[in-house]
Amino acid sequence: MKIAVASGKGGTGKTFLATNLFKVLADRGDNVILVDCDAEAPDAVLFFKSDVASVREVTHQVPLINKEACTFCDRCSKYCQYNAIFYVPSVKMIDVIENLCHSCGACFYACNSEAITEKNVTIGTVTTFRYSDNASIIEGRMKLFEMTPVKVIKEAVREAGSDGIIIFDAPPGTSCPFVQTVDAADYVILVTEPTPFGLSDLRQSVETLKVLRKKMGVVVNRADIGNRDVFKYLESEEIRLLAEIPYDGAVAHIYSEGKLAVDFNVELTEKLISVLKEIIE
Amino acid sequence: MELAIISGKGGTGKSSISAAFATIEDKVILADCDVDAANLYLLFNPVNEKEKVYIAGHKAVVDVSVCTGCGLCESYCRFGAIKINDGSVTISEVSCDGCFLCSHICPVKAIRMVRNDKSRMYSGSFRNGIMVYGRLAPGEENSGKLVNMVREEAKNASKANGIEIIILDGPPGIGCPVISTVTGADAIVIVTEPTLSGLSDLERVHPIAAKFSSSVGVIINKHDLNSHMASRIEEWCSSHGTPVIGRLPFDSSVTEAMVAGKSVIELYPGIEISKDLIEMWNKIKQL
Which ipTM score applies to this complex? Predict the structure, then answer.
């Protein structure tokens, strides 16, 4: 089963929840993989002592233009939807802006004079860490100055396969990287906080998940701050409230140290076990 | 002066801090560049005077009555968006990147490209000036182009109204929308928190900020959550030649203000955190 832990708003506790859920499952002997899909800012592995089992580079193909063969017909730059081919007709200048290329292959197809070949460029890595006999962590990490993490996320998701329980720690927002992550999941846990910003972003995530026809439930983190509007919203939309986690300075401190709250807090562990039970059954 | 506020890690307090800064001066231009999850308008209720449609790329749609099921498009699509089952084509909206290649190669012209036109840019006045913000329709590409549109409008509003200060509330992460937010900004402030994740994300986003501006500063929010980690972040900053503009305490007044639809400076101008924010703002203006 694949479970995504997501939220529109950043910093609501996605990584906190995903890492602790993973720890609970790993400790009780389940076959579990945690996939860090926040390839722009991956942090999940910081919480575990683990060994690197494998590193795979994620590459994509970008065009290479042979200026000797190029007739400067402009077809490739017209076909490119991403402004990745910089062409100045008056001075016969043509260049590829690799950072903007989406590797769709349209320019390669467009070229009538065999002036375009393609080369592989690394845009990130997928690293597998072994945590225990039954548990591992897969991290997608986009290279700095790359524009989009989408392909790295796809590769990290693929690396996880489909055996056992797989937990995706999703990137924030509700655009492409979020959709790529949640689309691969059987169930989505949305983490929110009961504040106006939290509610606004929750609403947006729920609407996206409805379009994707995903099963979902909500965990309200820092449940005792802000106001009650998030709870009213969940009731009116008939969305399952999986758990409320109150603000606890001690838990926040444990998290800040890069440690796992379930190792110190029995109450939280029990809460997470019941969330898992509900979702997996 | 154009100031960009970013963070790497989400939820460190960018928007609350931007809101506070926006209510110190008499008049500012406030641009919400977190087009994926725009929130600041909730505090400031701007009267939208301008609305522009943002075209967030295209999606391929197949006309099944024309399609012969030849499978050529499936073999060309590099995004795995096209599947042929028993001679009928389906195109996944989620996977389609809008590259147009399938529409070009289809021998019977059965594929049409449809514009994604649900995203918007708004601009209007609020109690402390003019606010510009974008709202990306869910699931659409988190392109920096909408951020560019927001910034362009913010600059126009700045010129037209003689308001010099532009505050850009940025998105989390380090990708395209972040790069679009910081490119050409006069100063960049990175908001972080004293957690291991906060430090790790600061390390990720700092090179991006440093490449685009020589004036980069760091704010450590909720520093009292873990003062040891806050010191580690300060050490990291000093070893990277980046000034720490200040530390802010954890204070529930900030959430209280958000619930009241105000910035913390508007709700409680006299409290410690508001004074800290004003002091930081004065330092940032010197960056």
Answer: 0.94
